[in-house]
Structures are given as C-alpha cells and as structure tokens.
Sequence to fold (1053 residues):
Amino acid sequence: MTIDSTALTQAPLAGPTPKSMLPKVGLRLPRSPKVIAGLALLAPFAVVAVIGRWISPYSPNATDPQHWVQHVLVPGTGPGTGITANYYPLPLPPSAEHWLGTTVFAQDVLSQVLTSTQATLFVGLIAAVIATVLSILFGVTAGYFGGNADEVLSLISNVFLAIPGLPLLIVLADYVPSAGSSILLVAFIIAVTAWAYSSRVLRAQTLSLRNRDFVEAARVTGEGRFRIILAEILPNLVPIVAASFLFTTLYAIYAYVAISFLGLGGSPTSSPPGLWNWGEMLREGFANNAIRGGWWWWWAPPGLCVALLGTGLALVNFGIDEFINPRLRVAGLTRKAAKKAGITSHATLGMTPVVGNRPAVPSLAARSQNVGDAVLEIHGLSVDYGYGDDAVHAVVDCDLVLRRGRVLGLAGESGSGKSTLALAAIRLLRSPAVITGGQVLFHSKPIGGDGPRGTIDMLASDKEELRSVRWSEISVVLQSSMNALNPVITIGAQFDDLLRVHRPKLSRSARVERSGELLDMVGINADRLRSYPHELSGGMRQRAMIAIALALEPQVMILDEPTTALDVVTQREILEELIGLRDRLGFAALFITHDLSLLVELADEIAVMYAGRLMERAPAASLFNAPRLPYTHGLIHCFPPMHGKRERMQGIPGSPPDLNDLPKGCAFHPRCAWAMEQCRHDVPQLAPVNGSAREVACWLHRGDAKVPAELARPDPGVAEVHA
Amino acid sequence: MSAVLRRLLVYFLAAWVAITVSFLLPRVVPGNPVAGAVARASQSGNCNAQCVIAVEEQLGFNVHTSLWDQYVQYMGNLAHGNLGQSWSENAPVSNLILSYLPWTLGLLVVSTTISFFGGTALGIWMAWRRGSWFEWVLPAATFFQALPYFFLALVLVLIFGQTGTMLKWFPSLFGYDIYVVDPGPNWPYITSVLSHAILPAATVVLSSIAGFILSMRNQMVTTMDEDFVLVAAAKGLPTRTVIWYAARNALLPVVSNFTIAISLVVAGQILVEIVFNYPGIGFHLFDALSKLDYSLVQGIFVVITLVVLGANLLADVAYVLIDPRARQAA
Fold:
C-alpha cells in the first residue's frame, strides 16, 4: 500500500515547459487510455456502491442453515476445554446458489461483498472530501498569506505529516468505540490523519502561483484577497486538487479497510452494529481460519476489490499526472511503430533514431570530392516528431555547409526548426524525434587531441563512433546554462568527467590544472572549480559552459541561443569573448538565434529558417543589408540594432505557423505582405538568385515576378563572395 | 531559523503531539470509555477484574488527581523511559517494547532497503528504456501498489505458507519455530529466524517496491528532459555516467518524499506482522488492543512514532548529502 503520484511529488511547475517542442498538446484528459481504463474499473464499484443493497441476493447477515452439511469444531471448545463443544458449518465453495460461496457462518459472500462496497466507498469519498477541504484551507492560506501564518500552518501540517498515519488512526479509532457504526465519524477520523500531505503540495503550488503576473494584476486592480484566492488561485490548482483528492480517497479506503481488519470498525453483528465493509470481511475470514482452511472465496474477493478499486484510482491519477506534467506524456515511440518505420536501434538519449529506408541523397560522391574546407555538411536533412500519419514534419529537406573556422548563423522564430535541425545533425534530438531523410557528414581534421580523422557519416554511425566525436570534435552550448550544468556536482567535476573520459592519459592534477586554465580563458577565477552551479551568476554559468565546450579543442561548436537567457550587457561580453576565442582557437561555429542583429557581427554566413525549411541563405552582410526574403526582411525589422540609427520597428504580422497545420504553398504566405497567387499553391525551393552565391526560397524572385523595392536593395556582400 | 533546526523542531513537535494525543484521548473522549472498553472486553472474555482496575487506572478513571497533574506525571515517567506497566504481560512496557523492537526493525530495515534500492534501480531502468518491452511493468506495478499489504500477506500464506494449503514452502507463523529451537546465538535458531522472515519480508517488499519503481520512473522521465542530461550525452560520457547524472537528480524528490513512503511501509508492516503472528511491535499492538492493555498500546504508538521520525531524520541526512543546495542551507 504505497501510493505515489508525481503530480504530488514534483517541484511546483514554473510555467509551461520552456523550449520543448511538444507537437501534440491537444491530448485531453478523458482521451488518455489510462484514464479510460481507470474509469472503466471504477464505474462498476460506483454503481454497486449505490444499488448494492438491493441487488444482493441475500442479506449479508442471513445464515443459510439448509446447507450446513459438514461441521468444524470452534477452536477452544469441546472436549478438554471445559466448554461445550461448539460447531461452525464448513463454508461452501462457489456454487450456482452462492456465486462466491459462503462464509463459515453460512452467509452469502457475494451479498457481503456487494453490501460492503457502499460503506467502503463512502468512507473513502467522504474522508477525501474532508481532507481535501482541510488541505485547501491550510495549504492555500499558508501559501498565499506567507509570513507568520505560513510558518505556523506549515509547521502544523509538517508535524501531522511526520506522525505515522495508521498508528495514529488505530489509537483514535480505538478510543472512539462507536466509530465503526458511523460512516461520518470514521471518515472524519481518517481525514484527520490524511490531509497534511496534500496541504504541503498545495502550499508549494500556491506559493509559485502567488507571484505570477495574473495574480499580481488582480492584486494591483484592488481585488480582495479572498476573491483572488477564489477566482485566480483555486482554478489553477484544480488538477493538483483533483490528484490529491484521488490520492486521499485511495488512502482513506486503505485506512478504513486496515482498521476494520484490526477489528476497530465494529462487528456488523454486535451492538452497536458496525458497517459491512471489505476490511471487516477480511477480518472475519482471517479470524476464522479461512487461510488454514483454504477457503479463499471468503477473503479473496474483498481483497481483490480493494486492489481493483485502487488500480482504477491510480490509473486516473496517472492521467492527471500526465496532464499536469507533459513530459510524462510524450513517450511517443512504441516498438511496433518504430519497426514499421524501419528503425532497428532503440531510441535512447543521444541516439536519435534514423529511418532505415530513408531516401538516398543523390550525387554524394560528387559532393564529397568538392569538400574543400567544409567541416560539417548537412544534405537534405528531414526530421519528424512521431511516426506515420501523426508525424509532425519539424525539419524538411535542409542543406547546410559549415566551413572550417567559420561561423554559420541559423536564424528563425521559435518553432521554426532551427534547434531541431542542429541537434538532429549530431543525433542529440530526444524521442519522439526521428530523422527521416538526408545525410550528415563530418569531415574531421582534429585541432588537438587524438580524435578520429576523415569523413564520418553521422547518421550511419553507431554509438561508439558518435561518442568518439562528441565534444572532442563537436561540442554544444545550450540556451539555459542553469539547466545545462548538473546542479548537484561542482563545476570542476563537470570538467573532470569530460577529461577523464576523453583524455585518459592526463593525471588528476593535470586535469585540474587544465580545467583551471579553461576557466581562466573565459575570465573566471580557477577557484570557481569548487563551486556548484547555483553559486554562479547566469553569465558566469554560461561562460563556464563555454569553457567546458572548448575543453577538448573541438572543430565544431554548436551554440543554441547561448546568450538569449542573459541580460544585454552580459550578452555582449560573452559574444565578444566568443569571437576572440574563435579567432584564437579556430573552431567553426553553428550559431542559432532568433536575433538576426546578433549574427551580423558574428557570422560569416546566415541561413534563415521558417516552418522547418531553409528559406534564405547568404553572406551575413548581404542578408542583413539586402534581404531577399520577405520573412528575413520582417525579422530584421523587428529587432533594434545594437548600434546605429533609430528605425521604426515593424515586426511580422500574425504568429509562427502551427506545424500540425501548415498552410498550403509557401508556409509564410498568410503573413507575407507581397504574397501572390502562386505562393498559396506551390512550395518554393531554395535556389540561387540571379546566379549569385546567395539563395532564397521565394516566388518573388522567380520568373517574371516583380520584386518589391525592399527586397531588391543592392547587395554589399556579393562582390566579396565572388572574389 | 536554519533548515536543520526547523526540521528538528518539526520532529520534536511531532513526537510531543503523538505522546500528548495518546495521553489525552482516553481522558477526554466523551462518554465513558472505561465502561465501553470493559463491556467490549468482557464480551470477548478477555477482561478479568484485574484488567478492569488496570484499564481504569490507565484511562484516568477513578484517579483523583487533576488532568494536569496526571499529564506532568506521565511526561515525567516518559522522560525516565518509564512507559508504565502492562497488565496483560505483567511487565514494564519499556522492557516489552525493547524485546519486540528488534523483530520489527530487522524486518523493516531489510525489506525497505531491498525495496528502495531495487525499486529505484528498476525505475531508473524503466525510464531509460522507455517504450521497450519493460513498460509492461507499469500496469503490473500499479496493480501491486494497489494491493493492501495484509491482503498480499494472506495470498502469500495461502500459496507458499506452511499454514496455507498449497505449496507449503516457507514457515508462515511466528518469528521462529517456537516449538523446536531455543532462542540464542545458535545455528538452528538463526536459520529458523531467517526462514521465518522470508514471507513477511517478501510481502513488504512486493507491496512497497511498486511505489518506489513508479515514483523513481516518473521523476527520472522528468529529469531526463533536463538540458544537463542532454549535455552529458553530448559530452560523449559513458551511458552509465549519463544515467547516473539523471538518476542522482531524480532521486532528490524521491528522497524528500521518503517521509510519506516510510509511514506507509510501517503501517503496512504492522498488518503484515499480524497476519504472520510475527513477534514485532505491530503484532503486539494488535494483541494489546484486543486485551485492552492501554499502557502497552500507548507505549507502542509512541515508539512507532519515534521510529518513523528517526527514519525521516535519516532521509533528511541523505538528502543533504546528495544535494549541495540543501547542504549550504543547512
């Protein structure tokens, strides 16, 4: 009887999961198979709880003397005890007359089970109602008012939580002799021992809600405290309250069954009569040697009823958990679906599966001969979330070439697929992502260390081959350094694990020295090796992450919005540092951002993504000063430049498209000021503009379409590229 | 107030509340609990004249001192380790509990350790191999989790117990073979104790492991979505290191919820001991209840509370050891 619910054991939610690309958010609670299975289990019990009395074939107390065929001696009576011999009938196994057999008192077991359902369920429900009300009163008040009220109320609930529930319940029930005869009284006593846990959870959740914008807003507009609690806080607690209600129902049923099993619920045949419930049936069976006698039909049905009811409640609770915590839901990939898609390897972290029968990329050999200074080549890469008809096409047919020592910027709004593209290339996307097509080649010429040389086909690589290039040749810096550093080990240990695995020859002291050097390189004192991530500021953490990323002198660094979470000043410092490091160490960088103005200063070349497709690709200066794509034009004009004259911001009307429901034709056409008829029907492909080195996927630049003046500015970078 | 002091205050208050409740209840419950208790007891033929006097004294009935004086005396006695006299066993309650406690603690420590570490390991594995054949454990675990401990005990006795009717593999009554072996440091006694512990321990492990599996699995699934786990994989660290990084973080909420887990395990074990007539405090609590030996009931309740508080304190220490943030707050 251990009950668990992540909804209740989790840290309070800090808003919607950031940055996660959850393609299927529409999964509602009742549609979850777990909830349906749970409700299906619970429904019969609910019905029987109401009508059980009337559908039971016999009275639960009635004995059936006609069937007293064989008799057993009551222990402690008969010859040698001085007490007149007393006999029980032998209980009858299940038969047509008694579907679940009879007890040793010749009572009908089925009738007892049916009658017992009522008290058992009602005690559970009523206790849960009382406990939930108590926990809301204590938890929400403590969480909302804070200060001394919180101190006192939290102390009370923590004290109640620390006292073991069942023993307290036993003592309480034992001293209240008539408890067993009143559903309300039993339920109340159980509730007293059960409310504390939910109260603690609700307090934590209220605390985090209290400071949210919508609550602040209500407070500023002068709404009363209780109105805020009722109108703003409670509605947001509904899933948690529901989870804790089910949890408490379950607990209360167990508790009631347990104290009845101990004989504290009162016997239905004594005075005052206790109520028939499953625990009482189990007690009678156990006390009358039903185990020794092998009369399983007597005690097994009530026990199984508890277990089935408990399973039903737990399943519904799982559904609520998945509703509250979407991470539990996106399991996505069943084995069957994977097999169908031709994926043999299992989807584990760091091994994004690749569809076996993905379309071959043409003219690979020709390309490979012209590798030139390319270090990472991505050809025709496509990525889906999920399999089959439900799959969301997050990245479609993308080509990118990262050149040695250069910075390639990858820009787009959130959800455009830019991170997906980059992480897919190095097989780091999580389930349910699947690489459905394309090829990724890594041309390795290690700068330092002893990494592999030559061309590595990333999508065909096995785990060991991937591991040999990971970090030593390709490292990654993610957006939020708070989450990218392991919170429970020191910064030093996060250098050390890396060096120990990839540079096994280094001694311990050499590793520490190297880690210190690296921190020093990004302007952090080597003392900080002993610090934990939470002891550093956001900027310092990101610097430390960059230092870790440089530890093995990689040829490629993938920077996934490395400065987005930082303030502008820190952002600038870190970017300047990155430029300096790049010049000094000569790594190539794939820099992902939604802020085009950042890239102008940093990148050699920029690619723009929209709705999973590459839409424009050009040298940085060309793209920024003379965009050819309406979308790029919009992006540039929605961020103020860090330097330069003030300009009027325009932004892009509308919002990023839903990948589940992309418009036909060019995905951008609904938001495009210059959309033509053709844009609504045909998807434009990336192609050179007027024979220059830059490419754009836009019908405005094809055929005899008239190019708007905004998209036809003179290109400052073309000459440079041709030279 | 530092976090440590705060926790200690909670435990201190919890112990005080438990003690006070068990003192106060029989004295303030409306009606005449003594008459009711005696009536119930004589109905079952368990209460003789000596019992009636003892019960009256225990419940502060016919005792002509004020409630406060009784309380002061009760607390004073407790402070000296004096939990009163058990009339049914005719021995000091504290001595009796000391003789019951090793059985309970032994069973509790062994089965909780197996269950916690085994369940956590399985939960980690399930989260890591999500979507594999291993997922079938999920519904099975849910069902096992929903089985009341004592019902599972009854099923195991029926199937495997020597007092059952089927396989009769393991002893299923008492803590050792009371008719054959002499308690003491001799081999037959030790093997007898061990073989008698198999079924009770199996019951506690089977009933409690599902909870640990499910909570660790869910926490692990949630933690594996964190960036630092992805970074660990990107760093090319061996798979076991990546798993360990996620697991150590996922463990934090599991450990901090050990409070409720251990309460439930203790509650379950009380009932399991009753089914097996296992001579720990749970079985004797049941026995004392039926004999209306209130001083023994109160004593056992206080001791169970202290055991659970002790386990909580251990969990707090473990938490501080694995979470540097808590270490600094402490």
In short: The mean pLDDT of chain B is 84. The first strand of chain B starts at residue 85 and ends at 86. Residues 187-224 of chain B form the longest helix (38 residues). Chain B touches chain A through 108 residues (CB under 8 Å).
